[in-house]
Specification:
Helices cover about 15% and strands about 10% of the residues. It is built from 2 helices and 5 strands, in the order ββββαβα.
Length: about 110
């Protein structure tokens, strides 16, 4: 089992999960984080830390697409080991549906 980040993180990117990860397996995109599923040790400490409830185990229904998405982007984006500042408007994005199709950015953090 591994944990992965889902579309609920898009445009929220709270990063509370990052500092509790014992193996530093989070990677940062322009508007979301991902977990490298090959580095994750399945401890689960990140899941309850996420205010957006964006982190799920790969045993959850529908997780397959997120495992592959997390694997792909964790190999493209920079590793993040410290909590940064979440977007000022993060709370307004918590309940938005279909964020991946409408708002996902494949860009790395810090790239315009």
């Amino acid at each position: 089992m591994t944990y992965v980040v889902t579309e609920a993180c898009i445009k929220c990117k709270y990063m509370d999960c990052v500092e509790v990860c014992p193996v530093d397996c989070f990677f940062e995109g322009e508007n979301m984080l991902v977990i490298n599923p090959d580095q994750c040790i399945d401890c689960g400490v990140c899941e309850p830390e996420c205010p957006a409830e964006a982190i799920i185990p790969d045993t959850s229904g529908g997780s397959e697409r997120w495992v592959e998405m997390n694997r792909t982007y964790s190999n493209l984006w920079p590793n993040i080991t410290r909590k940064g500042t979440h977007p000022a408007d993060a709370d307004k994005w918590l309940e938005v549906d279909d964020k991946f199709n409408n708002h996902f950015s494949p860009k790395s953090a810090g790239v315009s």
